[in-house]
Specification:
10 strands, alpha/beta, Rossmann fold
Length: about 300
């Protein structure tokens, strides 16, 4: 059973790739695959992952552990479960720094990382436990841990989930500022198209383990070419339209063991025809930099 299949992405330095889709579409599995952190029995059975000219799948585990956190870092989805509840936040950041020999003075570097993510009185925060911090502060600690070694690629998996709107805006502004400061590439994984519109340079839309559309953020919002993308955009509340109900995508995402043989969105698609059931449609370039996996495109 394949949770992610036929996905190809590229993230240049200083750019943000947004990966968007419903829960269960494979976004987090993709990010864990890049980090080689898939839990057993999950495994990567085909394909390749190249970072800075290195094949990560061929890299020995010891070398991968050195690279992970130092050159590629990740902000995990749930800060309360990702942080160790019995260690102070300072101890956890220092542990990450020492694991990579990344600082002559780990404590000073950890305080600098907490200061960089705008935690008030960073020196005092070093001695606090995760449960003593608010959700927004815990998320800032996760970001501080991720950027302490100044990685060249940062993967942020739902970094604003369960945060109120004000804190969400602060976290996104922080990520933007850190990227401008360090020049890192950023993979931003979310189900929130508003976050994508604000942050992403390029966007990949995932559905049932595949990328169904990829384009620049402006092209995707101005001229969506896959029925699933149209459905996602139609479900966003808008103040400039007078309508009583939001547009809904009928049906549910099929589980991996029940994916249809053709287009995986076909059972829910208002544009579907008989040919959609024959074979999975490939990503086709409809205009420079804009691809869609739909035989009916352009719509």
């Amino acid at each position: 059973m394949r949770a992610v299949d036929g996905v190809s992405i590229a993230v240049p330095a200083g750019r943000t790739l947004g990966i968007v889709g419903e829960s269960g579409c494979g976004k987090s599995v993709l990010s864990l695959s890049i980090m080689r952190l898939l839990a057993a029995p999950g495994s990567i059975i085909a394909g390749g992952i190249t970072f800075d000219g290195q094949d990560l799948l061929a890299m020995p585990q010891r070398a991968m552990r050195r690279l992970r956190g130092r050159d590629i870092a990740m902000i995990f989805q749930e800060p309360m479960t990702s942080l160790n509840p019995v260690h102070t936040v300072g101890a956890q950041i220092i542990e990450a720094l020492r694991a990579h020999d990344a600082a002559a003075d780990p404590r000073a570097t950890a305080i600098a990382a907490l200061t960089r993510v705008r935690i008030p009185d960073a020196a005092a925060a070093m001695d606090k436990f995760p449960h003593q911090l608010s959700g927004g502060m815990r998320q800032r600690v996760m970001i501080a841990m991720a950027i302490a070694c100044i990685p060249r690629l940062l993967i942020a998996d739902e970094p604003t989930t369960a945060l109120d709107v004000t804190v969400q805006a602060q976290i996104l502004e922080l990520l933007r500022d850190l990227q401008a400061e360090t020049g890192m590439g950023l993979i931003l994984i979310t189900h929130d198209l508003g976050v994508i519109a604000e942050m992403a340079d390029e966007v990949a839309v995932m559905y049932a383990g595949r990328i169904v559309e990829s384009a620049s953020a402006q092209d995707l919002f101005d001229d969506p070419q896959h029925p699933y993308t149209l459905g996602l955009l139609g479900s966003i509340p808008r103040l400039d339209l007078d309508r009583a109900r939001l547009t809904a995508i009928e049906g549910t995402v099929p589980p991996p063991h029940a994916w249809p043989p053709g287009c995986r969105f076909a059972p829910r698609c208002p544009f579907a025809i008989t040919a959609c059931d024959a074979a999975p449609p490939p990503l086709r370039e409809l205009s420079p930099g804009h691809q869609a996996a739909c035989i009916r495109a352009p719509l």
